[in-house]
Design goal:
Layout: E1 5-8, H1 12-23, E2 28-31, H2 36-39, E3 47-48, H3 50-58, H4 63-68, E4 70-72, E5 74-79, E6 82-87, H5 88-92, E7 96-98, H6 101-114, E8 118-120, E9 123-129, E10 137-142, E11 145-150, E12 153-156, E13 174-190, E14 199-202, E15 208-212, E16 217-224, H7 235-246, E17 258-273, E18 276-277, E19 280-282, E20 288-289, H8 297-318, H9 322-325, H10 327-349, H11 357-372, H12 374-385
Parallel strand pairs: 1-2, 1-12, 2-8, 5-14, 12-19
Antiparallel strand pairs: 3-7, 4-7, 5-6, 9-10, 10-11, 13-16, 13-17, 14-15, 15-16, 17-20, 18-19
Helix pairs in contact: 1-6, 1-8, 8-10, 11-12
The protein binds flavin-adenine dinucleotide and 3,4-dihydroxybenzoic acid.
Residues 8-14, 31-34, 39, 44-47, 101, 124-125, 157-159, 161-163, 184, 186, 265, 284-285, 292, 295-299, 301 line the site of flavin-adenine dinucleotide.
């Protein structure tokens, strides 16, 4: 098999890239290890920055997003028994949209299949070779049979556990990492929304987040031990923890409902540079991970592939290689900004294992500052909405 651009992974990065290339007349093949049902039902991210929404709309895959996405003009911070609002629209003229990642994936899969795009499920890439030639190869297995895909370029969009990153020689790579000693316990709840907007709560017992999926389904998270098991958490224990962390002394209470899904995710910050070697390029979680606190992961995957799509277009249309050569440098500016923001917000909002009572009061002092100083609120809003200049 041969194609112009071989893409490993049908997550947001791989599918969106394939679609953006199609719109530019560039052919691609997407190889995905999991099945279609699996990728379309895995619960992950939920918040889209305005830039991501615009990219999806401009690419013609925003019909359901426009109809079903829930636009929020701000979000709430809960701390010290009170609630304070960050007004994104007033501060930076922007809004975010709550629309689940697996819904974005459904829209992208439908668009690729409608355009007769080559998208293969249950196909695992095992190795990438010849990346320092003009004709790199992806080796993959399908139904136990080994096959190869010959490409002009290989794009590794295979997430944090994929094979692509390892195809860049370790001697040419620098990895930066910070693993957090806590995780997020996520629940899906059948209930009406507890609030009109997301609530990020800092409490001495730990962080909690109240998000939404639809008028009848809510998404909530609370900080937990990443090694804990969902089996240790009865519904009653979960609700008592959520109430303790989120309810305010000003009379706000979260609304309980039937919990129909529970999961625990670990948290880390990670960046691998360079994100390219020869004709191999990495995008999304394959190259970088953020803790989920700032809701940046999916949005960074989208901004990486926006850069790649225009760089590949310049190559195929005009024979230009300069944009591809500068891909890592261009993408990393936004990535490091988001890494810093996610790390900063994580440390301001979570119970830190080694924090003294003094440091806990500093967290509250910082929350007071970012919710009362206009310039500090605006900087927070700019970063959260992803409209900060890099
Ligand atoms: P992935 O989505 O991981 O896709 C990689 C794909 O590659 C997978 O489908 C995988 O099966 C496939 N693959 C792997 N190896 C191979 C192989 N060898 N061969 C073929 N295919 C392979 N981000 C946000 O922006 N906003 C949020 O609100 C947010 N909340 C989150 C909440 C949680 C609980 C979690 C876990 C994450 C959250 N994120 C959020 C992060 C976001 O989900 C990820 O950053 C995003 O999925 C990255 O997309 P990707 O395409 O790079 O990788
Ligand atoms: C969601 C996830 C996040 O990481 C976040 O910061 C906000 C919302 C969510 O899944 O809805």
């Amino acid at each position: 098999m041969r194609t112009q651009v071989g893409i490993i992974g049908a997550g947001p990065a791989g599918l969106l890239l394939s679609h953006l290339l199609h719109l530019r007349g560039i052919e691609s093949v997407v190889l995905e290890a999991r099945g279609r049902e699996q990728i379309e039902s895995t619960i992950r991210a939920g918040v889209l920055e305005p830039g991501t929404v615009k990219l999806l709309m401009d690419a013609g895959v925003g019909t359901r997003l426009a109809a079903e996405g829930i636009v929020h003009h701000g979000f709430e911070l809960a701390f010290d028994g009170k609630r304070r609002r960050i007004d994104l629209t007033e501060l930076v003229g922007e809004s975010i949209t709550v629309y689940a990642q697996h819904e974005v994936l459904k829209d992208l899969v439908a668009a690729r299949l409608a355009a007769n795009g080559a998208l293969y499920f249950n196909v695992s890439a095992t190795a990438i070779t010849d990346v320092d030639t003009d004709s790199p190869l992806i080796r993959f297995t399908h139904d136990g049979v080994e096959q190869t895909l010959q490409c002009d370029f290989v794009i590794g969009c295979d997430g944090s556990q994929g094979v692509s990153r390892a195809a860049i020689p370790a001697a040419l790579r620098q990895d930066y990492e910070r693993v957090f000693p806590f995780g997020w316990f996520g629940i899906l709840v059948e209930a009406p929304p507890s609030s009109d907007e997301l609530i990020y709560a800092r409490h001495d017992r730990g962080f909690a987040l109240v998000s939404t999926r639809s008028p009848n389904v809510q998404r909530m998270y609370f900080q937990c031990d990443p090694k804990d098991s969902v089996d240790h958490w009865s519904d009653d224990r979960i609700w008592s923890e959520m109430h303790a962390r989120v309810d305010s002394s000003e009379g706000h209470h979260i609304v309980e409902g039937r919990i129909f899904q529970k999961n625990i995710v670990g948290m880390r910050s990670f960046v691998s540079t360079k994100m390219q070697h020869g004709r191999l390029f990495l995008a999304g979680d394959a190259a970088h991970i953020v803790p989920p606190t700032g809701a940046k992961g999916l949005n960074l995957a989208a901004s990486d592939v926006r850069v790649l799509a225009s760089s590949l277009e310049a190559f195929y249309r005009e024979g230009r290689e300069d944009l591809l050569e500068r891909y890592s440098e261009t993408a990393l500016k936004r990535i490091w900004r988001a890494e810093h923001f996610s790390y900063w917000m994580t440390r301001m909002m979570h119970r830190l294992e080694d924090a003294s009572a003094f440091e806990q009061r500093l967290q509250v002092a910082e929350l007071e500052h970012v919710t009362t100083s206009r310039s500090a609120s605006a900087a927070f809003a700019e970063n959260y909405a992803g409209v900060v200049q890099v």
